[in-house]
Amino acid sequence: MPHPHDPHHPDWDQALEADSEAIAPTHLLEHANAPATHAAPGRTSWRPVIEAMVFPIFFAVMFALCYVSAFHSPTPHHVGVVVAGPQSATSALVEQLAPNVGDKFDLATTTDTAAALERLQGREIAGVIELGTPMNVHIASAEGPMRVQAVEGLAQPLAAAQGQQANIIDHAPLAADDPTGSALFYLLVVCTIIGYLTITVLAQVAPAMELRVKLGVLAVMAVIGVMVSYFVSAIFVGFYEASFVENLGLLAVIFTYTFTVGLVSILANRVFGKAAIMIVMLLMIFLNFPSAGAAFPADFLPGFWSGLSHFWIGAGAMDAARSIVYFGSTGIGHGLLILGGWLLLTVILLVLTHLRKPTPTTSPAHASH
């Protein structure tokens, strides 16, 4: 009896087709016999290259525009300072200083030093100058070196005029291993990248993934990414000299932030398609980091960037993280309100886009069954 693989066997053609499919599945080679649409070897099709170059040009322009405009000339704007002491002395001093400081400082007076210190620890003001011998200058280093330098720069000449040195008292010192206070900002930067890069990669490797599955992957990656970033940075800066509970609170804030960044990325992909990466970078890199109040305090930024810091997501996360780690969670409400607002708004918009997403029509083949 002839073998199926004998050329004279009646099933020869079917056997040959099956063998071919086993070696190179035709569903993977569906374009193998299609007419060539690409440039011949050695030649370049320049149109897609030129279109692709829009992204690096966009990056260069936006990076220079946003970061240079925000950071080129840090100047204090309405930095709050309270002068504490006898009413007659403090009022005379503020009247003397007011014409010189202009809008750089918002000066106030009080006879109640304890109340002024509560405002400092509540993150309402940048410093307290307590008149007396010695002249005590109360600061909070965790608010940033620039704020400290500004308050000290205001107080030092006053002390020198009285023939004494200012006595600096720090009510919120930075961790010894993080003297610049930049570690929290770097953690924020890394977790931002984790959030939007997770969704960017998923859009490339699994564009048809269901939303609920994508949210699950994002949640897992947010947990892993935050923990990895946190423990790797701890090798160098420790745990911010904060308690275990405070560190848990920090991780909760950063996880929520990372997950929200991912949600924004999902929303951008649904609305803007291929342009989503530029939209996400605009929101989460070019607008987010300069306005976060980390590299420079918000009241040292130009008007646009200072205004943005009052409601932008990175500023909210940084504000909440600082409050937890360095101020015993005092004043945390503002940062959590911003972060929660972004999360809620993004979820609502995602639900709306999901509900409006057209459902695939039933094909005639399926309708016949």
Verbal overview:
- A 5-stranded mixed beta sheet has the order 2-1-3-4-5, sandwiched between helices.
- Helix 8 packs across helix 9.
- It starts with 11 loop residues before the first helix and ends with a helix.
- Mean pLDDT is 86; it is low at 1-5, 12-37 and 359-369.
- It has 2 domains: 79-170, D-Maltodextrin-Binding Protein, domain 2 (3-Layer(aba) Sandwich); 183-356, no CATH class.
- By secondary structure, it is an alpha/beta fold.
- The radius of gyration is 30 Å and the shape is elongated.
- The protein is 59% helix and 7% strand.
- The protein contains 14 helices and 5 strands.
Key terms:
369 residues, D-Maltodextrin-Binding Protein, domain 2, 2 domains, 14 helices, 5 strands, disordered C terminus
- Could you state the order of secondary-structure elements as H and E? HHHEHEHEEHEHHHHHHHH
Strand order of the largest sheet: 2-1-3-4-5
Radius of gyration: 30 Å
Biggest sheet features:
5 strands, mixed
Distance between the termini: 41 Å
Note the total helix count. 14
Report the structural category: alpha/beta
Q: In total, how many beta strands?
A: 5
Overall average residue pLDDT: 86
Gross morphology is: elongated
Identify low-pLDDT runs.
1-5, 12-37, 359-369
Q: List the domain count as a whole number.
A: 2
Helix fraction, binned, reads 55-70%
Beta-sheet strand percentage?
A: 5-15%
